[in-house]
Write a structure and sequence with these properties.
By secondary structure, the protein is of the alpha+beta class. 23% of the residues lie in helices and 34% in strands.
C-alpha cells in the first residue's frame, strides 16, 4: 500500500513538472512601443510536433497593437493557419493564439525552433507571460532573453580590452 501511494505521488509530481516546449522572448523598445518577439522550441516532451501556441498575457488587449501581430509562415498568415486574440479570463488579461495550418506542413518538429511570433504593446505587459501548447491547459512560463549585455559584463570585459590594446601597442612598437 505504501509503495502504491509513493508511486502515485511520484507520477503526479513528475507529470505536472513536464514541459512540452520552451518559449523564449525578447523585448525591444521601438517607436514608443515595445516589440515582443518569441521563439518556440519543441523539446519533444509532447511526443510529437507542435501545432498550436497559446499566450496568456498579464495586460488588457487594448494595450496590444493587434494589427502588428507577427506570424510565422503557415501559422495564421496568408499561407494558412489561424490567429486568434482577445480578452482572457479577467479584464486585465488577454491572449494571443497561433495555430499551424491543418496540413501538418508547418508543424514544429521535435528538436526544432521557430521564430516569428511577435506583437507590439504600448505598455510593458508585465510578468509572467505564460503559454500552453497543442490545446493543453498546462501553462508554463516564457523565459525573457536579455539582448543587451548587462553593465557588469562591460566591467569584466574592460581588463581584457586593455590587455589586447597593450599587446597590440607593444607589437607595433617592436616592428622596425
Amino acid at each position: 500500500m505504501c509503495k502504491l501511494i509513493l508511486t502515485l505521488l511520484v507520477t503526479l509530481f513528475s507529470v505536472g513538472s513536464l514541459s512540452a516546449g520552451v518559449l523564449t522572448y525578447t523585448i525591444t523598445p521601438t517607436g514608443g512601443q515595445s516589440l515582443y518577439q518569441f521563439t518556440l522550441t519543441n523539446t519533444g516532451d509532447t511526443g510529437g510536433t507542435l501545432f498550436d501556441l497559446f499566450l496568456s498575457l498579464p495586460t488588457d488587449i487594448t494595450n496590444i497593437d493587434t494589427t502588428t501581430i507577427g506570424t510565422p509562415i503557415g501559422w495564421g498568415d496568408p499561407t494558412g493557419g489561424l490567429l486568434f486574440f482577445g480578452p482572457d479570463a479577467a479584464p486585465s488579461t488577454s491572449f494571443i493564439e497561433w495555430a499551424a495550418d491543418f496540413s501538418g506542413t508547418y508543424d514544429l518538429g521535435i528538436g526544432n525552433s521557430l521564430g516569428g511570433f511577435s506583437f507590439r504593446s504600448s505598455v510593458d505587459v508585465g510578468r509572467p507571460i505564460t503559454f500552453a501548447l497543442n490545446g493543453s491547459t498546462d501553462f508554463a512560463t516564457a523565459q525573457e532573453v536579455t539582448t543587451t549585455p548587462e553593465p557588469a559584463t562591460f566591467v569584466l570585459m574592460l581588463p581584457v580590452i586593455l590587455v589586447i590594446g597593450f599587446r597590440m601597442r607593444s607589437r607595433t612598437a617592436q616592428t622596425p
